[in-house]
Each structure stands twice: as structure tokens, then as C-alpha cells.
Amino acid sequence: MGTCHCSRCRKVGASTIVFVRKEDLRWVEGQEHVQLFQPKAPYKYERCFCKICGTSLGEILSDMDSFPIAANALDSDLEVRNSLHEFVDEKPSWYEICDDAKQSKGHPATS
């Protein structure tokens, strides 16, 4: 789980995301109601949302092995906790980071 503070994630209401392995995602119903938003440059990540209720779903239609889903779209309680904050330089002044998770100015470095 991580929190992105970039303006794009904040505006779609999907700042806190949970990374899901494609092999662990099981569609029960409703995939036909997912709409894909294609961003314009400089943004590159496609975003999904429900055509019926407008809920932001992150990158749930991604072909990647692992992808982010908006944590607020999940109904069940999550056992994971926030482990990172990215794009903290874009964080609005009214938002306070209140945990000890790692912070980065952009996407965190991958090892």
C-alpha cells in the first residue's frame, strides 16, 4: 500500500493505492462496467473507473504482473498498511503525513 500525492491521483480520489498481483485478481462480475481513461502527455498511466458509479479503480485492467488498485474501491478491511509516500513535493499544504512510511519526491527508486 502506498500514497501518491501528485495532483492527478488526488483529483481522481485514488491517492492511496494497493498493489495487486494479476494472478491474485479474480473478477466475479462487473468487468464490462469498467471504463479506461487514456491520459495525455506527460502522464502515462491509464486509469480505470466504474461507468455506473464513477468509483476510481486505479489500473485494474492493466496487463502488468502487478498493478495498483485504489484502496478506497475495496470493501473489505485490509491487513496491509501504508509503506510509502510518493510525489511528496506535490502534497498540498493542508495534508499532513502522519506515519513513518518512506517518502520520495517522485516515484520511489526500484531495486
TrEMBL record:
<dbReference type="Pfam" id="PF04828">
    <property type="entry name" value="GFA"/>
</dbReference>
<dbReference type="GO" id="GO:0016846">
    <property type="term" value="F:carbon-sulfur lyase activity"/>
</dbReference>
<dbReference type="InterPro" id="IPR006913">
    <property type="entry name" value="CENP-V/GFA"/>
</dbReference>
<keyword id="KW-0479">Metal-binding</keyword>
<keyword id="KW-0456">Lyase</keyword>
<dbReference type="GO" id="GO:0046872">
    <property type="term" value="F:metal ion binding"/>
</dbReference>
<dbReference type="InterPro" id="IPR011057">
    <property type="entry name" value="Mss4-like_sf"/>
</dbReference>
<keyword id="KW-0862">Zinc</keyword>
<protein>
    <submittedName>
        <fullName>GFA family protein</fullName>
    </submittedName>
</protein>
<feature type="domain" description="CENP-V/GFA">
    <location>
        <begin position="1"/>
        <end position="96"/>
    </location>
</feature>
<comment type="similarity">
    <text>Belongs to the Gfa family.</text>
</comment>
